[in-house]
Every structure is written in C-alpha cells, then in structure tokens.
Amino acid sequence: MGVVKKAKWAAVAVNGAAERATRRLMCCGVFVFALGASDGVCFAQQSEDITPALPITERVEVNSYKGIDLRSYAQLQKGLKVYQEKLQLAPNSQLYFILIPKKQETKLDGLTMRLASDEVSTPVKVDEFGRFQLPMLELKSEDEYDLILNRQKGQFFIRPYVKTQGLADDDKRMGDLRLECQVRWAIERQDVSFVFKSYVSMFASGNPCESRTVEVQFYAPPQIRTLSLQHQGQVRYFAVAKDRRFSVPLWDNKIADDALLHYVLNTSAESSH
After folding, report:
1. How do the residues of the chain divide into helix, strand and coil, expressed in percent and rounded to 5?
2. What does each C-alpha distance from 203 to 5, 142, 156, 191, 270 come to in angstroms?
3. 3-state secondary structure of 200
4. Are 60 and 18 in contact (CB under 8 A)?
5. Domain boundaries along the sequence of the chain
6. Considering only CA atoms, which of 172, 160, 164, 217 is closest in space to residue 10?
7. What is the distance in angstroms between the CA of the first residue and the CA of the last residue of the chain?
8. What is the pTM of this model?
9. For the segment 162-191, what is each residue's pLDDT rounded down to a tens digit?
C-alpha cells in the first residue's frame, strides 16, 4: 500500500525549483507543504504519515502560498461572506483578522490601520493583540479599497481569527478553528500555487479544511508551547512549535465543534505531557 503524506498549508512564496521537485514527488505519492514565516524551501527527514506505524520517508517541504502580506478589502470580503455562510460551526463567535509579526522583535505599539479608497479613508481599530474587524461594504470594483498600515511592507502576516464569545482568553472551540480555516481558504485560494491547488483538488476534495491529507497550521499566542483538547472525557495534547505553529485534526468528525481547546503555558509541570 502506498504511503500518502499530508500537505501542509503554507504561507510564503513558491520557489520554482521546489515546485518542480514537488511535481515529481506528487507522482510518487509523497507531498508535503510547510506553513513557514520565511521564504525558500525546507528539507526535512521527519515524517507525518496520516496513519501510524508507516515507515519514515524523506520529505520535501514546499511553500505553497505567494506571500501577500496585506490584501485588498475585496479579497478579505470573501472571508466575511464565507464566515456568514458557515456560521453554524461557531454560531456565537466573532470574526476578527489578526496581524502576526514575521519577526519577534516587530512590535505592535503605535500601529495604525485605515481602510482607504480614492474617495474616503476610514480608521480601523487594531487592539493590543493585533486584532481588528472589518465591515461588510458594497463594492463598485475589486480594487476600490485597500488596507494601509503605518509600517513598512513585509512586516506582518494577516490571518482570520474566529473566537466564540464568553470563552476565556486561552480557550477556543474546535468549531472556531474549523470556521477560521474556511474563512482563510476563501481568502487565500486564489493565491496558492498551482501545485498546492492541484493537490487539494485531487486529494482533499477541493477543501483543505475538511481533509486528513492536508495539515492546516495555526498560530498560537506567544509563550504557548502546548495545546490541550478536551473531547469525550479525555484530554489530548498537541505540541506548539517555537515559531508558534500548531495543528489539530480539523477533519475528524468524531471531534465535536464544541470540543474545547486550551492554550497551555510552557511550565515545567505541564511540559511533561
């Protein structure tokens, strides 16, 4: 039986040589994308098979996304629409977008944002965590509005952030992350590489948020190294990488949308899990 690898949904630019290499690997059933915070291609020896006890195979991690830092309002509006369409995943939630610094030394202090067109410029409030919300506007054209920061370009990623109201700051529902993923895919699908789009079409039924063959990665808050998942009276733990990335099995329908996720600080007692 062939070994099928997960694809990791990426966040940075495609390298041409990497894309050619990935095309070759794709034919062999070995296909992995990495969500990274820097350009280029990563090569790794570790394996993340979708079933346990499969042999470790060398993998090539290829960036699948063109690396646009801030997007036009029209592109983000696609996420606003999908959020409303799939609100049953997190019916009591709110949709934010969040600015994630590419480098640890990049601070949010003094950051301002505005939603601007040729005729109007409207301030957008950004909170201390980099979160902001956008209104649903009627557009005359795709390029009518842009998001503009008072910072040089290239300092931040932008991601959707879905949060159920009433939860503690360090808790989220599984449905929050599932809806967050759907919003992100609506925004980014036009910018992913041909290779990744082909992979999703062939192996993930066109939606990376609902398939076990794609590992969707999220960013945890700073200082978090572990994520716990409470499900059916049991607690599972997931590691958070040093660059704050983590993944959970969004595709697993046995895990209810109401299953609670908890960000765990990396204390000596908790890190043993």
Report:
1. 20, 30, 50
2. 10, 31, 31, 19, 36
3. helix
4. yes
5. 1-67+191-217, 73-186, 220-273
6. 217
7. 33
8. 0.74
9. 999 999 999 999 999 999 999 999 999 888
